Amino acid sequence: MRQARTLMVQGTTSDAGKSTLVAGLARLLARRGVRVVPFKPQNMALNSAVTVDGGEIGRAQALQAIAAGLAPHTDMNPVLLKPSTDIGAQVIIHGRAVANLSARDYHDYKPRAMAAVLESYARLTAQYEAVLVEGAGSPAEINLRDRDIANMGFAEEVDCPVILIADIDRGGVFAHLVGTLELLSPSEQARVKGFVINRFRGDIGLLQSGLDWLEARTGRPVLGVLPYLHGLFLDAEDALADARVDKTEARLRVVAPVYPRISNHTDLDALRLHPQVDFSWVGPGQPIPPADLIVLPGSKAVQADLVWLRAQGWEPALRRHLRYGGKLVAICGGYQMLGSRLHDPLGLEGLPGSIAGLGLLDLETTLEAEKRLENVTGTLALPGAAEVSGYEIHMGVSHGPALANPALRFADGRPDGALSGDGQILGTYLHGLFDRPDALAALLAWAGLADAERVDLAARREADLDRLADSLAANLDLLRLADCFDGGAAAAALRSTVPGKLA
User: Fold this and answer.
1) What is the pLDDT of residue 237?
2) Which residue, 63, 103, 187, 328, has fewest beta-carbon neighbours within 10 Å?
């Protein structure tokens, strides 16, 4: 078998649309029968997922795997960095945490990380016909060029072509593209085969003169201008999905704090998108609005985020909320905050030590070196015993009297979490708590929304992946894109979709 053809997508900035473009291309090619796989050499994100082989990867790569019709695997994201402080992160190699390193120490570690990257890449190229690689941040970050494994360092190592994507909605799109290209070395510049402009809205005729100038200035084609897709739902890599969803039937008010180290905030997507839920993220310095339900999401630095929570006035707000009959859901790190004490004796998320928790549940939590990673199913301890599914991904071990009344029970018989005696507080380690339609309906009913509309997050995700792929097919120059692959099954599939053109 010939080695898979590789195409790498790099961005002019973070959140330029790299993850979305790779997901859309993966779905586009998979629908045309290409065995395609996503790959991100190095990811820095606090949104993660558990893989079929029991490891941890970035959430965006799990989404891209779904787009390609694959089960997420650690080879799709061999290096994951989960920041726990401004200068340090947990380093995850092939799905397993191996160290907590400062930025400076990680720089010295990069050759070992690159070896892991190339090992995974070799396995994928042997199994698939096309590899879609996503870069990280921007290749023009001069301070990160040395020992780079995420962008051009990887592209140079494996000798693959690159396309650059930029977000026109941010402004300055031509400066982003030209400036990025100019800051690359001659060999890196030669790898850039074309540009994609993302999130355009307006009259494209008014953009044409700029596109002509860009092509003349750089000698590279604009492969397509992608429209702004309103209402598109895809799991966010790390940037908080805070776009307001237009709702006319909202009856349940839900709020959640945005901690500095919030993790797996996609747990709340089902609430954010539900037509009868008025959902709001509450950031630093913002007033805490009245709510029927408050959700405390996960955290990568639980003690530090709890200190922040207190400084923002959330502790008295939570007690007032509960005093007046409100409901509280807490997931993973948020659940740990509810106990009486938080212990980090090994300094896994900061300095070693213990702090007082919120004292809303009678339990304590200790962070241990071994991280629990498991995809799970179970049933809620609420009327109807709705089925839940998702994953565990935590280093904390909780114990105490509150656990005698679990929030749910996993299929293997293990209890999880706690439900307060008054029925107002539900804490759990389960990520994906709201994702299944029946579980979401049961939780909304518990929170005060009877007869909630049925919302199927998985079906919505699939529909939007198809919508994205359709948009790419309509707005990309598929022949020029095919040329970027330099032959192979992906190029043939793209050419076959163009009338009058043969593969």
Assistant:
1) 62
2) 187
